[in-house]
């Protein structure tokens, strides 16, 4: 199956320059860190997403993000695409992100849409974890 | 995308046509060439084409040591498998309705078996052992009074593992069942001596052995005689077993490719054996690598490796200038990982992490060296990206984690 050029570019850039593309981890115990991990090895993809936030007015803003993804090229590209959307967003804005935005940005084919769904789930879970700590 | 710099290590999927084969094929197409219909009996155009077809039939028969009259041309190994399985089952259905095959057969065997189940036949799908071998004992214990056909592949296309045709064939003889073998991966890789092994039907493909796509053959034993119900009717070509005008150029291509396979088998074998050894040695230097398939019972041209904590398709994308194939789900239309690797009892995540490297006649030392130079590095970088690798390094047993399956 041929990938879109956007998936290939995003995947390769992330692989070749992991730090710039926010590959890594925060200490999950820190109170200003929220962690989400979704998927399963047996299904062929696992995404771990961490957000570092700070309070601003009566909401919280995502200051930094780290992620790691095990999965096919479009799973890795989807995580990386999501991560780029997150920085500077309030939690409300981040919650409103829909998988279709990732699908459109990367021109994912129908069989790869589950990658974008997984990415959406990962930010929802990370926010839940963060909010539970506050 | 340019294919100029791409290294081809997917010979088990298909091979390029040997230039000597292509040259020969071109003599059978144009007005200056022998373009006649081999079935035309009334002029020299037909006679010449027929001569070429029969010469090609002899080349195929020579490679596998059978009578040329036992070779039936088909459009490929898929059609040969269909003709053997459906043809025998439907012809002998008054004798019994039970068929034995294995879970690691090619789809060209499994799908006809599924079709026969819909027609009322009963099919037993044997599990391989953990090395990917079908044990003769398993075949024996699956035998019933109603068993009419056993279909077990010679060399598995994903693993390169080799089944014991003599032992399985003897069990079939003893139980009065026909034995069909899919040998698409075998020709030119290992010696086949049909005169001396108890096989009744064998499927061949040209394009896995440096011949063209779109042509194959089915061996149908004459003594003891095997009969089939044809799948394609219309003129009674190939002694009624497969109608349709013979594709002279394709057939000549397959004949020439199999003639060359005989000549080159030793060279090809020693070449790929050296690559296999080198590959194995280097790959084993990477942590958490598993070789799939019994290493002591396989052909050297195929090497199937799982790189734990890395998903196979992302590895293929990372190895962007190297053409290999993956047992992982994502390259195919389904999201299931390789059914062959699952049948070995490999955990799903190892099945998702597998890559098949296959070497051939036109693979160079440089191809292998360049691949090995890149491979370790890409695996390292993907593990750097992998939460599973991180958890593994943190000492977490992944089997104890509760995953949110989707």
TrEMBL record, chain A:
InterPro entries: NIF_FeS_clus_asmbl_NifU_N. Residues 3-134 form the NIF system FeS cluster assembly NifU N-terminal domain. GO terms for molecular function: iron ion binding; iron-sulfur cluster binding. Pfam families: NifU_N. CDD domains: IscU_like (cd06664). GO terms for biological process: iron-sulfur cluster assembly. It comes from the Bacteria. This is Iron-binding protein.
